[in-house]
Design goal:
alpha+beta; 416 residues; two-stranded antiparallel sheet; 11% strand; Transferase(Phosphotransferase), domain 1; binds adenosine-5'-triphosphate; 2 domains; binds magnesium ion
Amino acid sequence: MPGRPLQVISPAPFDQMMSPSSQSVLFFFLGGIIMFMIMLILALVFWRVIKPADLKKLVKQARRRPANTDFFSGNLRTISLFDFQTLKRATKNFDPSNLLGRGGFGPVFRGKLDDGRMIAVKKLSLNKSQQGEPEFLAEVRMITSIQHKNLVRLLGCCSDGPQRLLVYEYLKNRSLDLIIYGKNDHFLNWSTRYQIIIGVARGLQYLHQDSPLRIIHRDIKASNILLDDKFQPRIGDFGLARFFPEDEAYLSTTFAGTLGYSAPEYAIRGELSEKADIYSFGVLVIEIISCRRNTDLNLPSEMQYLPEYAWKLYEKSKVLDLIDPRMREDGFLEKDVLQAIHVAFLCLQPDPDLRPPMSHIVTMLTSSADMFGAPVKPAFLDRKRNRDENPSCDTISEPFPSPLQSDSSSLPKQPN
Ligand SMILES: Nc1ncnc2c1ncn2[C@@H]1O[C@H](COP(=O)(O)OP(=O)(O)OP(=O)(O)O)[C@@H](O)[C@H]1O
Ligand SMILES: [Mg+2]
């Protein structure tokens, strides 16, 4: 009997055994199980590595982040953006009890951040700073990149609608004007004063010559010298002019208080260079030594203008009479004081080219070598003619002798 050919029955392929609908159910089911296992393993790992307490901290930080958002641009330093609510909280809603002072650019408030850091918040006055947000942030980024131990640190900023605020580190001993103009009773001995003079000179040298940007401060004065807890000086408000459109600050009455520090060529013609800062530094040095304002119309007329008075004493070889009487009682190093006064006179030279650069000034103040040229009579602004008027070009009466006219051989000898 012929055998029946063997029929090989191959099993139907898996996909043919099941209907398409039951296949997709199976895929979803298996996929779900695999996903669940992966999640479980991840959760276990996460739980073992990060403790619940840490987790809480992370959540808190994430919530706080918008208050202090770091951002980065190019190779410049990271800056912090503070939100307005944070600064409001830190300053107790800009409470008047936290008002540190009010300058030409707006009020400054003391504040305390949630992490305990003390800050000084400068609210830029709206009518003056017309900058848009991108320009403002670009300027902040520039200034934040300028750092030196004798410059106040800009911690960050806030831009909220039209508001522009700058956040600085808070300096415990506030500004030098409060001490030297007798607004508080603190007495500075000679070595602290000398340390302040040298520190300011180093800060200025950095701004003018060593920083990545060339910065002319434009407003060197006692209220812009802040003092840390060890009375080390830090120059404040550098770069502030960058936030304001080119103005005629040198002619503005807002800056009248600063006029006694202004170099004549800047005050009269608006000629601005590092030498204008150097002139202001010279005025500041004499203020620190004598502990008085550069202009005081309550004093006898020959004493009203400090650079003029200092020069008169110098001509009579009595320049040490300039010294703050309390410092005289406490004791001082005569050689150092004379050296500082001599440097100040060089800074006050009428011709900007004759004023030494800050690097020379630092060397003169810190070395014992006698490397000084003889100063000529300082130039200064004289407001005697129109006391009731705000100072302007018309009221500046002091002639500015040409350096060619000045005969340094006829100068009195520097007292020893
Ligand atoms: N970082 C700071 N730490 C502590 N006190 C500060 C700080 N910055 C400013 N101050 C205080 O706030 C006061 C006001 O400062 P502000 O710079 O507004 O005014 P100013 O220096 O008198 O004038 P200007 O606007 O011409 O600089 C200062 O005199 C100083 O006492
Ligand atoms: Mg200031």
